[in-house]
Write a structure and sequence with these properties.
With 86 residues, the protein is an alpha+beta fold. The protein is built from two helices and three strands.
Length: 86
């Protein structure tokens, strides 16, 4: 089975986000008032093949924790969607 995977990576609560802070400070000067809480993260998309959804989920979770994030400062959520057979 093939699965479409989307991983959203973001800073953990309390970790400084200098990119987000810079964007938030710049927006009012560009005419975008009232914006707050800007956070910058990563979005990672890929396709994975596995025998079952549970096997795909286990592999995705392992990738997220071992390679796609820095677990000291980042959290992630991963969504899987089964793809139609080709």
């Amino acid at each position: 089975m093939r699965f479409s995977v989307v991983v959203e990576v973001h800073h953990k609560e309390g970790v400084a986000d200098p990119q987000g802070a810079t964007i938030e400070r710049a927006l009012p000067t560009l005419g975008f008032a009232g914006v707050s809480g800007v956070q910058v993260g990563k979005l990672i998309r890929y396709t994975i093949e596995a025998d079952t959804e549970a096997a795909a989920r286990a592999e995705v979770d392992d990738m997220v924790h071992r390679f796609l994030t820095n677990p000291v400062i980042e959290d992630a959520t991963a969504r899987l969607e089964a793809l139609a057979p080709a």
